[in-house]
Amino acid sequence: MQFEYHIKYSNRKTLNISVERDRSIIVRAPEHLTFEKIDKLVQTKKQWIQEKLNHTQKYPIIADSKEFVSGETLLFLGRNYQLSVVEEEIDGIEFDQRFKISKTNQHKANELFKEWYLNQAITKIKPLVVKYARSLGVEYNKIKISEMRYRWGSCTPKNNIIFNWRIIKAPMYVLEYLVAHELVHLIEGNHTFEFWNILSIQIPNYEKAKNWLKKNGQLLEIDF
Ligand SMILES: [Zn+2]
User: Fold this and answer.
1) Which tens digits make up the pLDDT trace of 69-101?
2) Would you state the pLDDT for residue 61?
3) Distance from residue 6's CA to the centre of ligand 1 (Å)
4) How far is the CA of 27 from the centre of ligand 1 (A)?
5) pLDDT averaged over every residue in the chain
6) Which domains does the chain have, with CATH numbers?
7) Closest Cα to residue 202, out of 221, 179, 172, 220?
8) If exposure means fewest CB atoms within 10 Å of the residue's CB, which of 4, 94, 123, 179 is most exposed?
9) Judging by DSSP bridges, how do beta strands 143-146 and 161-164 pair with one another?
10) Cβ 151 vs Cβ 205: under 8 Å
11) How far apart are CA 95 and CA 124, in angstroms?
């Protein structure tokens, strides 16, 4: 089994591996260790890592809990909206300060909502990427909306910007932050002082968005 892990170099003397709550693997290593040496050491810890990753109590996978019945609420752009299951025929999801679906579609509500949220994510995120790319003077390759859990967004070495569709549950100011954050990575790959400096010019109140994400991080692990 192959693991993906992130290496963080520091002035520590020994290698330390940790599995984060989001199941990402962080390897903290002394600066002088070569990648080959680090990888060798990580491979010897494979079993330990696997055990950690399988520990569902410490790293819970929260089951999707919506039943899609009238009166339930769904989070969208930072607000909760009520769902009405109605007798009339509706094509998919109707949204106007509340969600509406047909009773006949209730059995596939999960898929319908996922499709609806994905579309909303694309529609809302794309203009923000255009806006902040222009403002930062950076060029990206493609914008992708993904299924990945445990991460809000990422950017690839090929300058593709990837976002988790579940971020559409967050308020607009949080979306702005997440988009700007990933685009600043095209200038500065790590979370250095310089990184936050550039970001704060784009998003002066980014701390507020970070706090929202800290409080609501578990939303990544459930669909709705
Ligand atoms: Zn980052």
Assistant:
1) 999 999 999 999 999 999 999 999 999 999 999
2) 53
3) 12
4) 17
5) 88
6) 5-54 (no CATH), 73-115 (no CATH), 121-221 (3.30.2010.10)
7) 179
8) 4
9) parallel
10) no
11) 15
* Distance from the alpha carbon of residue 155 to the mean position of ligand 1, in angstroms: 9
What amino acid occupies position 217? G
Per-residue pLDDT tens digits for 127-184: 999 999 999 999 999 999 988 777 888 888 889 999 999 999 999 999 999 999 999 9
pLDDT digits 0-9 by tens, 2-17: 567 888 888 888 888 8
* Ligand 1 centroid – CA 96 distance (Å): 34
DSSP state of 185: T
Please classify residue 5 by burial: count the beta carbons closer than 10 Å to its beta carbon, then call 0-12 exposed, 13-18 middle and 19+ buried: middle
Helix boundaries (H) for the chain: 35-44, 46-54, 109-136, 172-184, 193-202, 206-216
Cα(128) to centroid(ligand 1), Å? 17
Amino acid at 45: K
Between the CA of 206 and the centroid of ligand 1 the distance, in Å, is 13
Residues forming a β-bridge with 153: 163
CA of 190 to the centre of ligand 1 (A): 7
For the cut 50, the answer to whether the pLDDT of residue 1 exceeds it is no
